[in-house]
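call fold target=DNA polymerase IV
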Amino acid sequence: MSNELDNRKIIHVDMDAFYASVEQLDNPELKGKPIAVGGSSKRGVVSAASYEARKFGVRSAMSSVIAKRKCPQLIFVKTRFDRYKEISKQIRRIFFEYTDLVEPLSLDEAYLDVTINKKGNPSATLIAKEIRQRILEETGLTASAGISINKFIAKVASDYNKPNGQKTVNPEEVLEFLENLDIRKFYGVGKVTAEKMYKLGIFTGADLKSRPMEFLEEHFGKNGGYYYHVVRGIHKSEVKPHRIPKSVGAERTFNENLSSEIFMLERLNHIAEELERRLKKSKIAGKTVTLKIKYSDFTLNTRSKTLSYFISDKSLILEAAKELLYQEEMKNSVRLLGISLSNLNTDKSKKTEQSQTVSVQLKFEF
């Protein structure tokens, strides 16, 4: 690791069970009780679970039916995104009092580069502690934090002493920390990848570190290089205040399975409308349309089409989505449909191309 990388001071702040904690904050009767934010219908999905619910195995993205089965006393609360955004803005205002290098990952977590900070405080550990205390005092909510030399280690560390805790991994502790880490704790290693690593005899960071680059690339493709470097404490990604989205999408899960393509087209029309609204709000357009189909047996299928011009208009999005829908026969009834747009006009080369091409100007609408 170079001295430049060693000298960075990165904090990852992660709110504790954010949506659920906000609901418990606003409704004291819910405090100490297992709650799930999301729909309680048979098609509902848990968006967030309180720590009381997590003890029963309830997790985000779990179907409401399974969640209720795991925790019969579970209380469902409807999502209130406006309220979550309101508090998220409060929290971000606190972040910006310490540094302008803030990279939000979502409403409830962000990276902060405090190598050079507005408070002139040389201790990232003390800054993280102060920020967490400020969040508690000003919002009534707790946050956890990880502090280290790069984003990867900071994010892993923030999960170490949850809830309402923090962990610092100093430069001289990085390699030992990573070597002793359970492979499941590595950010970027999901359940499927972890199982694959287990079969290859990789259970800890030390096991991962013992495998050469060629071995990792053979078994994990381009991610092999990522694993090779992060286990050695190398992660050069900077904290980027303005994260550029790689795709914008919208999707819907239906109360009843759809077995007719006529009904699917009707739903796709609404989804394309919502996607258009999001694109125009962000002043973004893209070339690649992807249709996402989840069948009633939970099989997931995606189909993509890349155009020669940028689009953001509902009618053009829907036209491409229809073509993708009819590309293959339906294997089963459908429980979810989604449309996303990628290959966006958010990098300079694409913006230049957009301004120089007449067909792009005709298709690009805000």
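return ok
The radius of gyration is 23 Å. The mean pLDDT is 89.
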